Amino acid sequence: MAAPTYDDVLAAAKRLGPHVQQTPILESSLLNKWLGHRILFKAECLQTIGAFKLRGAVNMLARCAEQNRLPRQVVANSSGNHAQAVAYAASLYNIPATIFAAQSISPVKAAATESYGAKVQCYATRSEADQAVQTAAADPDTLWIPPFDHPDIIAGQATATHEALLQTGPVDAVFAPCGGGGLLSGAVVSTQALQPQAQIIGAEPEQANDASRSLQSGTIESLSSPPDTLADGAATPSVGEHTFGFLQQLDDFYEVNEVQIAYWTQWLQHLLKLHIEPTSALSMAAVTAWAVENPTPKTALVILSGGNISAATMQKIWQQDYLLQPPNLTQQDDK
Amino acid sequence: MAAPTYDDVLAAAKRLGPHVQQTPILESSLLNKWLGHRILFKAECLQTIGAFKLRGAVNMLARCAEQNRLPRQVVANSSGNHAQAVAYAASLYNIPATIFAAQSISPVKAAATESYGAKVQCYATRSEADQAVQTAAADPDTLWIPPFDHPDIIAGQATATHEALLQTGPVDAVFAPCGGGGLLSGAVVSTQALQPQAQIIGAEPEQANDASRSLQSGTIESLSSPPDTLADGAATPSVGEHTFGFLQQLDDFYEVNEVQIAYWTQWLQHLLKLHIEPTSALSMAAVTAWAVENPTPKTALVILSGGNISAATMQKIWQQDYLLQPPNLTQQDDK
C-alpha cells in the first residue's frame, strides 16, 4: 500500500463532511502572555466520541462504501479511543462491530464503546487481543480497522490538522502527540502541503519512548513491557511501517516525563476549560522548549487529541496542585 | 431603579457584541439516551474569563461609555468569577479596578484577576470586604459594579439565555443555577420574551439554600454562616431585591446535595469534555427530576455558568468514581 498523499487527505475531508464535527480553535490569553507566543489549540476532544480517532475509522469505512465493498462486519483491537471510533463509525453504516480489548480496558471506555452498539471482547493481555483480531480478520466478510498503520487511517487523521490549518491561517509550527503515529503522520502530510514552511514537532511519554528510540536508531523499536504512563493514548508499544516513514520527516521530537504530563493536563484544563486527556498535554513540554528557543513572537498550532479520561486518572492528575506554580520556562532546557 | 426589560436585554446584547464570545451549544448523545430527552448545554465556561459573569460587568461599563459617564476607577466585591469579570471589563476601557475579596479567595482566582490588570485587596471575612467596597464606592469618581442586584448586571447576564435560545430554537424548559440570582433572573427576562411557553427552573446547593427558603417564606432570607459547598459560585448569602422579584416567577426550584453536585460535575466533564465548575452541575439534579416527570421526549436548555475551579475542588470532585454508576433516575424523586 502506498503512503497517503495530500489528495488522499482532500478526499478524506470530503468523505468525512457529514459525519465528523468541525471542532473549534481555542486559545488562552494568559498562556500566550506567559510563553510570549500565540498558541492555538485544535479541540479534537470536542469531536464526536471525544477524540480525533473518529476521522480515520470513518474514512476507511466511507471509502469502502464509495467502492461498494462494505464488509459484513468490522473488528478492531483497542482499549482506548480507537475502540469508540470504530464502534461509532460502524454504527453509521449499520455494520456489526466487535472490539478486541485487553481486560484492563476502563469500564467507562468499554461502556461508551458498547453504547455505540459494538460488542467488546476482553483478553488477558493486549498482545492476546491483537492476536485474536488477526484471527477474526481472516474471515473474508470481516474488515479489520487497524488503529494507525494504514493509508486510509492516516489520511483520515490528517484531516484534523488540515481542518485546523484552514481555520488558523499561517502558523510557524504544528505540535501533536505520538502513540502509533497516525495523528502525527497526518500532521506531516497536511502541513507539508498547506504550509510547507511550518515546523512539525512530536512528543511522547518518556515512559513509552519507543518512537524516540526508533528515530534515533533508524529502525522501529518496541517497548518491552506495558508502560506506566498517564498518557494512555500514547502507550502504543511501537509505531508502524507507514507512520515511521512520516515520523522521520519531523523537525523535532520530545520525550515528556510524568510530572510534566500531569502539570500540563491541569493547566490546559484550567486555561482552556476543556476536559483534555493527558495524551493531549504531551505537546506542551515541546511547546515550552520551542517557546524559549524562539525569541520573536510566533504562532503555533497544537492538536489536542482527545478528552476520554477515567476517574482514576483524573485523581492522579489532580492529586498535586500545580496551578499554584506557573511554568518556569527555563527549566524545560534541562530535559 | 426599575427592573430590566427585554428591551434592556436587546440593548445589552448589542453593546456586548465586540467584547463577548458567542459560546457554543453542546449535547451528549449518551446523556440524551439515558434521560429520554434532548438536553442542550450553553457552554459559558468557554466565555472569556471562563464564566457568564463577563456579560453583566461589560454591560454596565459599556452603558456608562455610551452615556459619556465612564468612572475614573471601578471597584467590586467578589472572591470568584465576578472579580475576574470586573477586572477584564475595566481593562477594556483602560480603567483601574480594585477587587475587595475575602482572604479565602483561591490563589489561582486572585492571580487570574491580577493578570487582567486589577488590584486585589484581601479582608479577613466576606462581610468585611463587602463593607470596604461600600466605603470605596462613596468616592464620586468611583463606580461600584455589584455582583448581581442591578438592572444593568441582570440585563447583561440575560444575554446568555437570549443568545442560547436564538441558537437552539424552541425548547420546553430552561435551567440555570442560583447564587445571587443574576443569571437566573436574566433567564426569566429572556425566556419570557422569546419563548413564553417554556418553563424556567432554578437550582441551588442544599448547603446554601437561602433562595429556596426565601421563595417558601416570601421574604429574602440569609445564610447565617458561610456555607460548605462544592458549588462556590452559588454560596452567596442572600439574593437581592431585584433578583428576588424574578425568582418568584420561576416554575420550579431545587435544592441539590453535595453528592449530586460532585456526581454531575464528573459526568458533565466526562460527557461534554468541558471543564465545568460545580455550580454548573447544579441544574442536572433538577433536569433529572424534570426528565422523570415528563413521559414524552422534550428539549431542555441548561446554562453552564462557568469553568473556574481550584485544584483542591477538583480533588474533592474526583475522589470518588461516579463514572462507574450511571444515574438511577428514580432516586431523584426522594428529594
Plain-language structure description:
- The structure is a homodimer of 335-residue chains.
- In chain A, the strands form two sheets. In chain A, strands 1-2-10-7-8-9 form a six-stranded mixed sheet, sandwiched between helices. The first copy, chain A, has a four-stranded parallel sheet with strand order 5-4-3-6, sandwiched between helices.
- With 335 residues, chain A is an alpha/beta fold.
- Helix content of chain A is 44%, strand content 15%.
- Chain A is built from 13 helices and ten strands.
- The radius of gyration of chain A is 19 Å and the shape is globular.
- In chain A, helix 3 (53-66) crosses helix 7 (151-168), helix 8 (182-194) crosses helix 10 (241-247) and helix 11 crosses helix 12 (278-293).
- In chain A, helix 4 (81-92) links the parallel strand 3 and strand 4.
- At the A-B interface, helix 5, helix 11 and helix 13 of A face helix 5, helix 11 and helix 13 of B.
Number of strands of chain A: 10
- Low-confidence segments of chain A, given as residue ranges, are 331-335
Largest sheet of chain A: 6 strands, mixed
- Structural class of chain A comes to alpha/beta
Please give the order of strands in the largest beta sheet of chain A.
1-2-10-7-8-9
Elements of chain A, N to C (H/E):
HEHEHEHEHEHEHEHEHHEHHEH
Largest interface: A-B, 35 and 35 residues
Oligomer: homodimer
Report the sheet-strand fraction of chain A. 5-15%
Instruction: Give helix % range of chain A.
Output: 40-55%
Rough outline of chain A: globular
Mean of residue pLDDT values of chain A: 95
Q: What separation lies between the terminal Cα atoms of chain A?
A: 38 Å
What is the radius of gyration of chain A computed over CA atoms, rounded to a whole number of angstroms?
19 Å
